[in-house]
Amino acid sequence: MDITGADFIRGMALLGAGLAMGLGAIGPGVGEGFAAGKACEAIGRKPEEAGLLTRTMLVGQAVSESTGIYSLVVALLLMFVVK
Amino acid sequence: MSWEKVELLRAASYLGAGISIGFGAIGAGIGEGIAAGEANHALSYRPRFSSEILTTMLVGQAIAESASIFALVIAMLLLFGSVESKPLVTVWAYIGAGLSMGISAIGSGIGTGMPVAGACKGIVRQPSAQSQITSLMLVGSGVAQSTSVYGFLIALLLLFKPLPDVTTFASAGALLGAGFAMGFGGIGPGIGEGIAAGYAVEGLARNPELTTVMTRTMLVGQAVAESTGIYSLVVSLLLILNV
């Protein structure tokens, strides 16, 4: 197959988009799950603080999510913006 | 070196089958091992609950196994599917399908083992709450399986979507990229949701009257952990559907 320069760039950008989103999703997934797990453990110990614990869990998960959002943004840029 | 198109396609489908079941076997193996290890540990405290522990362990391991069974199905489709009438770009779709299914099964397999381990620990601690513990374990491990189902869907789409006859490097990159996106993207949510469910089951065993709040917190946390898996699914679908 003949590969032109523009085609090569587009191919690499799309492959890069896949790798960006794929690898970028590992960390937030594990981290957010860990936060949720510890929150559940803590609610088991102190059920009366369930509201506070859920709020703290969600704030922590939102921070952990940020790198996943960066990956999503870069993947979308690679797919639709860069030429 | 010059190869016929059909030879290239066949070679790629065999490579894809190997990738699918090779990676796909990692997670279920680890997850089931975690479950079995914790079951044995739990039995050492209270051997008379052996039948309850054994049942819980086997049910949970069966769920963990399903991720690698999906990978086996994709591998079989790749091994025995017909390649005669497919365009050349399908080479990349075959490898992408193997990556998507195989790698995403790692997370679900490991993740599903964790609530099972938690349930074995919990049943020994609080035998009277066995039914609540088991049902929370089933819900939690079912959610942890979700990303391997996404991987399976993307793999099926890559295998059976009609592809253009013209092979460009861009379409090859998109098909391979879709496999990487969904494959790697499935690891994190699978493991994370499993960790969440594991602690939730243990927490429930400590305080069995908390079934509602524990289920709710676990599901909210898992939903957040799922988000990156959904991003990966969306990116993969965009990559495939634009080919």
Task: Tell me briefly what this model is.
The complex is a heterodimer of chains A (83) and B (243). Chain A has 83 residues and is an all-alpha fold. Chain A is built from three helices and no strands.
Topology (SSEs and partners):
The complex is a heterodimer of chains A (83) and B (243).
Chain A: H1 5-24, H2 26-45, H3 50-80
Chain B: H1 5-45, H2 50-80, H3 90-125, H4 130-144, H5 146-160, H6 169-206, H7 211-241
Structure explained in plain terms:
The complex is a heterodimer of chains A (83) and B (243). Chain A is mainly alpha-helical and 83 residues long. Chain A has a domain at 26-83: F1FO ATP Synthase (Up-down Bundle), CATH 1.20.20. Chain A is built from 3 helices and no strands. Chain A has helices spanning 5-24, 26-45, 50-80. In chain A, helix 1 packs antiparallel against helix 3 and helix 2 (26-45) packs antiparallel against helix 3 (50-80). With 243 residues, chain B is mostly helical. Chain B has a single domain, classed as Four Helix Bundle (Hemerythrin (Met), subunit A). In chain B, 85% of the residues lie in helices and 0% in strands. Chain B contains 7 helices and no strands. Chain B has helices at 5-45, 50-80, 90-125, 130-144, 146-160, 169-206, 211-241. In chain B, helix 3 packs antiparallel against helix 4. The longest helix of chain B is centred in the N-terminal third of the chain and has 41 residues, at 5-45. The mean pLDDT of chain B is 93. The chains are: A mainly alpha (83), B mainly alpha (243).
What is the molecular shape of chain A? rod-shaped
Q: Element order, helices and strands of chain B?
A: HHHHHHH
CATH fold-level topology of chain B: Four Helix Bundle (Hemerythrin (Met), subunit A)
Largest sheet of chain B: none
Low-confidence stretches of chain A: none
Query: What would CATH call the homologous superfamily of the domain at 26-83 in chain A?
Result: F1F0 ATP synthase subunit C
Largest sheet of chain A: none
Residue runs with pLDDT of under 50 for 5 or more positions of chain B: none
Rounded Rg of chain A:
19 Å
- Give me the number of helical elements of chain B: 7
Summed over residues and divided by their number, the pLDDT of chain B gives a mean of 93
